[in-house]
Structures are given as C-alpha cells and as structure tokens.
C-alpha cells in the first residue's frame, strides 16, 4: 500500500512536520484497528507519503474496506481539530506482488506499479473535484482477483474503472471515494470548440508529429500565415490526444479563441472564464485574489491542455501568461496558434506551411492533399462534382495558383456550384473579389482579403511600407536585392534588413537557404498580390515597379558581362533563379514606355538567351522592346538589340522579321560610322546566318562577301573566319544533298557529316570570340 498527501507542498516547514507526524499516527491507529500492528509491516517514508508492505496473507479486501474507512474517519477528526493549512486529504494505492529489500530499502515492479497508480490523472481529478478525504485506487489484479468476489466486505459497485497511463505504464485501475457517490469514468472535458463537421484532409502526418511535440514540450506554438489551417490542425491534434486517452489532457482540454481580445485586457481572467475552472472544486483554492493567482490555483494540480488560438495580436500578454503557467504549474500544457512565435524559453515552434500541390503534367492528382481538399470541399458544395481528366488540370492549376493554402482552396472550391474549374482558374487574377464569401461564424475568414488584412494591420507603418514594396518581387529575392530596392525607395538598408527579419517572424515572408550561404525570401502569391493591391491604393505601384525594373536591368548588365568570364556558370544559375523577376522587369519596361530598359536587357542577355536555346522574353516580347519610333531610342543601343533579335529570330523556328532586324542594325551602324567595330562584324555574321537559315544563299553571300578588310581587330578577324565558314557551309551541304540525291555521291563527299560538324563548331566559335574577349554587343566595357 502507498499513501500520498494531496497538496503537500506549499506549506511551511513547521506545518510539514506537523502533518507528517499526524499521518504516521493516523496510519498506526488505523492499522491497529484492523488487527495489523504497523510495527509488523515494512514502512518506508516517501516525503509526502509512505509505502507500507504488509505481511503476506493479509486480506486485500480488509485493506480496501475497513482500513480505508478508518482512515477517512481519522482524517475527518484531524481536520476538525486542525487549521485549514494543516488539513490532510489522502490518495491511497493498493497492489499485490513481490518486493525485494536491500540495504537501501525495497524495490520491485510491484513498488513501481503502486506509485504509478497514485499518479493517475483520473485519481487526482476525482479527489480534487469532490469533498472526499480519501481517494483509493486498486490495481486491476486486486479488483479482479479479490474485491470483485468479496461483497461482504466492500461492494464492488463502489469502484469505477479508470485508465492509468503514466510514463511507461498503460493499464487499468479501480477507484473508490468512501462516503461519496461512486465516481464514473468520464472522458476528459473538452470546452470551447468541438471538431468541425467538415472532413479533415491532408494533415494526418502533421497531427501525429504534433502529438509527439505536445508530449515532449509544455509549450508548442503553431506558426504560419493566415489561411494555412493552423487552427484546424491544432483542434484535430487536441481531439486526437483526447480520443487516445493521453495523460497530457487527462483532466481536460480547452479551446480558447483570443481573436476578440486586445493588448492590455485581463487575459488571466478571460482564461478563467473560458476554462470554467475557477469554481470546479469547492474544497480547492478559491478563485480569489489576483487573476493570475486564481488561474494558477485552478490549474496547479490539473493535467490540462490549453489551446490558445489567434495569439498574434496579444504576443506580450500571452507570453507572460504562458511563462506564469509553465513556472508555477507542473502539468499544464499549452498549444498556441499564431502568425508569430511567442519567443519565450521552453517554446517549441511548428511551422504550418501550405499543402503539397502537384507539379505540371502530374497524372496522380489525388496523391496531393491540396487537390484532395479542393475535391472534398467542391463535393460538399455540389454533391455531383467529380474530378475528371477534363477538369483535373484546371484544379491542379487553381491549387498551385493559391499556393496550396487551405482556406483559399476551400473558398475557391465553394464556387463550383456557379463556376466551372476553368472559370475559377481564369478569375484567380482577381482572387480577392472571387474568394469573398467564407465562414459566417468567423468574420476574419469570410473573405480571403480579410485573412490577409488581419496580418497586415498587425504591422507598424514602416513594416507595412516594406511589405508592400517587397511585393513587387516575383519568385523571391535575396537580402541585398531587398536593401537595394529599399534604398531606391528611401528605406535605409539597416531598416530594410530589420523589416525582412520581422516579416519572416510574422509569417509574411518565407525564408529558405539559397546559394553561397545566403537566404532567399519569397512571398506566397496571395500575399504578394495583396501587397500589390495596397501599392496601387497608395499610388506607389508604378514607382516601385520602375525601381524594380531598373534594379534587374542593372543585374542583367552585370551578369551579362559575367557570362563572358570564368564566372559563367554562377551567372547562368543566378539568371535562372531570377527568371520571374527578369520577366517582370522586362514586361514593365515594355508596357510603360521604358523601352531603353527593355533594350538594355536584350543587349545584356542576348548571349544567355541564345545559350539556353529558348527565348526567355518570347519573340513577341522582343518585338515589343523595339516597338517605338527609332529616333526615340539611343541608336547604338537599338542596333545592339536588333543584332540579337536578328540572331534569336533565326534560331529554332525562323521568324520572318529576323532578317529585317539585321538590315536595320547594319544601316544604323553604317550611319554611325561604326563599320570597323565589333558590332558591325557580328551584325554581318548574324545577317548571313539568318539568310542561310532561310536557304537564301545568294543574299547570305552578299553579307559574307561584304568588305571585311576594314576590320582590324582580332575578334573581327575571327568572326570573319566564321563568316567564311557560314558561306562555305551551306554550299557544301547543298552540294552534298545534290550529289546524294542524284545517286552520284563520290568519295570526296562521303565524310560530309564530319565537315558539317566542323563548320557548325567554327560558326559558333566565331560568334563566341568577341564575347569571350569582351567585344560583343552585350559587353559593357570598351568598344
């Protein structure tokens, strides 16, 4: 048998000595009344209680009935004669089994088991929530083997079965409260929020992981931007712990939404009201004094899980309350949801990100939780909705366009009663208007815009300005790019660094490790579009996009030079990573009459566009860069761009306008008197190339035989060699086809494939030489 004094701690030393002496006197008297002299038992002190090993053959039924009843009577008398601070209430555990002794005391599985019984949360709750003076728990073995068959001593119906899940022990116990109604097993109380009626999709692995975090940490914060499903994930985790009978919430789990509170509100009193714990026990500490003390008193002996939702606007207040509960209670577990961590010792953070979305051309769409969520919510809106091969691509595109965020996906899926997936996809460009009707019970989630508004308005004015400015970036950015943009907008670099860090903390930016040890930052597309809408409203969208275009024009020119150096590989990687930003800058320049920016980007990146084998800006984009009266552009810059558009238009699918661009470039250079420069030589090369690609050998020959003796620099002579290769290559190929076609391909034409390969290499090498030596059209140095 093991006995434990409830609420033993927190008393002065003289009271502890008095209570301990009273306990041993009471044990001696009660054992004696049952005919079991205490001196014939082994008694070992355990600080706030004792363990008693009775002689073999002592009836367990006697201990569970008469002894416990005598203890109850003795406690009543003691408490009547003592002050409240010296009152005693006992938890008593009873088990049978072998024990072993040595010079240090007793040991054995039976000893461990009886103490695990005493630690069972339902036993503690039964005593705390009643007026009982003694709470008895017996092991399942004692109940099944003895008490169930001894109704003459104790009525088995006075016992209630409870789960015992403590540390490594998972078993069953039976409790009895002498003088009180028979306790009935109750599931842990769950107040504040029940499971939502809608199905839970795509987060089962996260629920399992979170349960492990909650078991190992007393403060777990789910962080992430609005609409990621933090609340739903936390609620599902809470219910999974309850359903599994987890000890962390043995005395209950409580959901409290803090969205309606403001900084400075009495949060402790609000929690007391929400928890309904202050008056739970008439024998426990009264709910008096400061609210924090009352909250601690209500939870100090409770194994309770508190789920505090929407903490971001009360970070300081919630952090203080959490720290109080962590330091002044031993078993209270806190789970919080916030768009920013609380930032206190002992906190474990769990980032909640978007759902996985399918890549392009994926066939197994239902293998991705974002698509499953869309289909599930679409069926809730329209029971006849099905995923088909016809609408699957559109649905996948919707999920990608919404970044895999659960709330926007749910709002979009709710539209299937009125719109097809194709129509929804087409309308996503104005997503804040499209997704403008959500939960009627959660105002912040009624519209997509309201979700982002909530985060935006928690920022101070400087942070808001930084947020909307950073929205101009497409596909992400590095810190140096953010500070450069900030400088152009009048934001001091150090301040921009601080803003970026804070926006990451507040889940408005995502940070991922990039190349060369530098972080790369990205806004979810929904947040980025919100920022752009805000920029429009304050009239800064055009100015900010202009600075962004200038920034990437400068980046293109720097990297264009690096392409002709040993840093070519790194430059290509950077250009590929910045593809979205480069396209956005180019498009802005073309749309807003900033053609000089567009032309400089074509000039700088022409070599890159050619190497990639694709037109990053697209042929229509290249034409738009040139779509302005020639005399409104710097002539040499226009000529350089025309050289590249001539060449790019002749690569792959031949564009009819390409040859004309070469003619225009040639005319400009001749008018400027630059016929002995590298641009003119390259112009002749690409002009000839375009003609030969068109199978116009006569015109190509005119370009090749143009007087080249005026080209005195070495790169020009190398290109001249390439021009001669251009001239001879098509003739050789043509001759080979004629001879082969006529059935007269003689010996000297048999190695034609090898000749063709050599000629092709010579042509490419000739074009490359001016760039490798810093003399090509895209080179920014000396001409």
TrEMBL record:
Residues 200-331 form the Orc1-like AAA ATPase domain. Residues 174-194, 723-749 are annotated as: Disordered. Residues 459-532 form the Winged helix-turn-helix domain. Pfam families: AAA_16 (PF13191), HTH_77 (PF25872). Signal peptide: none annotated. This is Predicted ATPase. It comes from Amycolatopsis xylanica.
